[in-house]
Amino acid sequence: MNISVPFTAPVPGPHNAITDVPGVRVGHVTRIGDGFLTGTTVVLLPPSGAPAAVEVIGGGPATCDTAALDLRSGGAVAHAVVLTGGSAYGLAAAGGTLDWLAAHSGGARVSAAPDVLVPLVPAAALYDLGRGGLFTARPDAASGRDAAQAAADSPPFAPVEQGCVGAGTGAVTAEMKGGIGTASDVLAGGTVVGALAAVNAHGSTLDRTTGLPLALDAGADGEFAIARPSSAEHAAAQRRLAEPARGRSGLDLPNTVIGVVATDAPLDAAALRRVALAGQRGMARAVSPAHGMTDGDTVFALSVPGSAGTAADPLHAVLAAAEAAFARAMVHAVLHAESVVTPFGHIASYRELYPHATAGPA
Q1: C-alpha 47: how far from chain center
Q2: Residue 7: inside a domain, yes or no?
Q3: Residue-wise pLDDT tens digits, 288-305
Q4: Which tens digit of pLDDT belongs to each residue from 303-320?
Q5: Half-sphere exposure of residue 178, counting CA atoms within 13 Å on the CB side?
Q6: Quick one: 133 exposed, middle or buried, by C-beta within 10 A (0-12, 13-18, 19+)?
Q7: Is it the case that residue 3 has pLDDT exceeding 60?
Q8: What is the arithmetic mean of pLDDT over 29-47?
Q9: Beta-carbon-side half-sphere exposure of residue 204 (alpha carbons within 13 Å)
Q10: Distances (CA, A) of 28 to 32, 150, 162, 303, 333
Q11: Residue 242's CB: how many other CB atoms inside 10 A?
Q12: pTM above 0.90, yes or no
């Protein structure tokens, strides 16, 4: 049976952020200077956790505890999700978040003793090694603990800082500075879907013809305050991006986009995997090419319990919203990114390259 899903413009939540999903909090740790250009982001869930799934499509992932979310095992409940820089080394941040949860009574009970809890903290890392100057300057366990604490210290439904923070600190794209972004959608029946994406894409996030970010058409009315670049502005930006002496030597290494889709819809493991797949489809709308052999493209999906979510919105509507929200989060990551000077040279942001097109706020 084919189900036709007509396009409906997103209706963002109060902060147009993944934290519009009840029970979801986000904390960043950002490290810049002294050889660092990296960071960690923690998506913190209620103490009892949330059913989770994952879809890894990129050929070069750096992940932790994704096997626990395998649908063949019936799925699992996660207590936090870690997105981090530092490639495989940065996965140490997940251990720090695990320690933080253990100290704050977060986790699944595995013994008759009430204080014996084991949290599940799936994680994914992107490649930003050495971008601040030192290969050894990368997230560690303290980064994961501090990001979890930052999430816990934030009030419910808090806005999420975007751009060159947390896991997006050292992110780059094929042509310019990347970052971290977020978006949300409130469906007709009240279900909330939110996404968070760290954009460190090997592929391009721009339409080569217009200079506009890909997936711009997925946005809500007026969501992206950006005008179509003039032909002169676009030509100038393309000339800058084509310069061989841009100082990007050493940056064109394995890349990845990592992120999370969360919803208050009560979904089982099979449905959640489809939500994660929808996030991957959104990724493919916002970067081209996606899912290459050197990319670690990974999307987690969460069904956060104990909220107002109901079954009023059908799964196909949740999936459509998840796809669009992830794509929109990636556009926000690009538009909020800021230029940076590294030992490899100057990495320009979209706003620097297209100043007239982005004169309004993102």
Answers
A1: 22
A2: no
A3: 988 888 788 999 999 997
A4: 997 655 455 799 999 999
A5: 35
A6: middle
A7: no
A8: 96
A9: 11
A10: 13, 7, 10, 22, 14
A11: 9
A12: yes
Greater pLDDT, 108 or 335: 335
Flag whether 6 is in a domain: no
Quick one: CA torsion of 172, 175, 176, 179, rounded to 10 degrees? -40
Q: What's the rounded mean pLDDT across residues 112-122? A: 76
Strand partners of residue 263 = 193, 303
**CA–CA gap between residue 136 and residue 133 (Å, rounded):** 9
- Cα gap 197→214, rounded to integer Å: 15
The amino acid occupying position 259 is G
Please tell me the total count of domains within the chain: 1
- Could you give the angle at the alpha carbon of 163 between the alpha carbons of 358 and 341, nearest 5°? 90
21 pLDDT above the threshold of 80: yes
12 part of a folded domain: no
Per-residue model confidence (pLDDT) at position 117: 75
Which residue, among 142, 124, 143, 195, has the nearest Cα to 38 in the 3D structure? 143
Inter-helix orientation angle 269-286/315-336, to 10° = 40
What is the DSSP code string of 283-316?
HHHHSBS-S-TT---EEEEEE--SSS--TTS-HH
**At 144, which CATH number?**
3.60.70.12
Section 226-249 average pLDDT? 79
pLDDT (0 to 100) of residue 2: 47
Residue with tokens 């950006």: 226
Spatial separation of the C-alpha atoms in residues 83 and 63, rounded to whole Å: 9
- Position 236, amino acid: A
The whole domain housing 83 covers 18-353
Tell me whether residue 216 is in a domain: yes
> DSSP assignment, residue 41?
E
| pLDDT of 105 higher than 80 | no
What's the rounded Cα separation, in Å, for the pair 61 and 298?
Answer: 7
Please tell me what DSSP assigns to residue 250: T
